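Q: Start with the shorter request: fold the first protein.
A: Done. Sequence, then structure:
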Amino acid sequence: MARVLLGIALVVGLWFPLEEWAGHIAANPAAAYALSFPLLLLAAARATPPTEPAPREGLAWIALAMAIEVVAFGGDVARLGRAAIPLGVIGYLRFTGSAALAPAALAFFIVPVPHALVAFSPLEEVWRSLAESLLGPAGPALRLTSWDSGIRLVALFAGLGWYADARSGGSWRGALRRGAQLAMLGLPVQLAATIVAVALARMGAVGSARAFLTHGVWMICGLGIVLAIEVQQRREVPARV
């Protein structure tokens, strides 16, 4: 009963950040990749044994979340309030002992990459130039956005690497190392995706090219990596037994 009450209180307390987070994703469809991480967090938490409840640690995380929320909305910086969401989730999981820190920290990937970071470097034009040097011009109909820079895929791959290690019961240090290793694939994959998009645009399928860049590339990569992780985990279980 205490878990339920704490969960309800947390949702109520984080209502404004959650509303802003949902609005951000609705306004930026390319940020929808972050919606996969609540499911991955749940899968990692269920695949690993629960820990002893840590009320003090959990309350510390929750208090930090509430403090950030007050600063964000009191200072009229609503976007900062998104950071309160993963902190609150981690606090709940640690307070109840539902997950160790490594799987719980997947909550950080629930928040999409800030747009300011995505737009920091115009890498999307670099990828387009390289792709068109190979295939020829795609024409003005294919418009790239800052979300096509590859930073989004770096974040996605980092989260998937973290998930792979955390799901197998690894520590947060191992998850950080695995996440950093997989994140290095983000930019090369974005270049490959841009090449595919330019090829589609040159064939007249501009709509398909745009849909592939917005949703197709992260869905295909995410699903493929998760399936590979699941297959590897199933092969390791008999070996451990």
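Q: Next, the second protein, separately.
A: Sequence, then structure:
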Amino acid sequence: MKLDLLFGIYDKKAQWMLISGVLIALAVISMSVLLTEVSTSGSKISYSSYRIPYYEMRSLIVELTRAYRNGDINETNEYNVSRTISEIYALHGYCVEVTFKKGYNTTSLNTTPPIHIYMDYLCVNFSTKNLHMEVNKSVIRTSSTR
């Protein structure tokens, strides 16, 4: 009388093949889980020291551009604005230097009243412990004299 050893399979070679197949499948699953765990933990560690403050840089440039176009920043208060922004960002661990470079000015005489067009350059140096980034952006501002 033959004994039913494994799942109704009486052949010992087939039983060993079935057991080895299950063991190989378990080994492949465990290796893929371990490799996934290692790769994700490595990327978390590598990105943590180089956290790039995209939001802070983008919001600073947008707000400076908006303020310059509205005329809130001009030749008389450029230094005070730059110093104040540097102090505010220094409290958060960033080194920020803001400068405005004069571009060209032109006047459109074809309109009544004449429109003055100022094209200047906003230069922002943004630094952290592991990053230094310089952004140069042209800013166009118009004004009309009445």
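Q: Describe the second briefly.
A: The longest helix spans residues 12-48. The CA atoms of residues 70 and 87 lie 23 Å apart.
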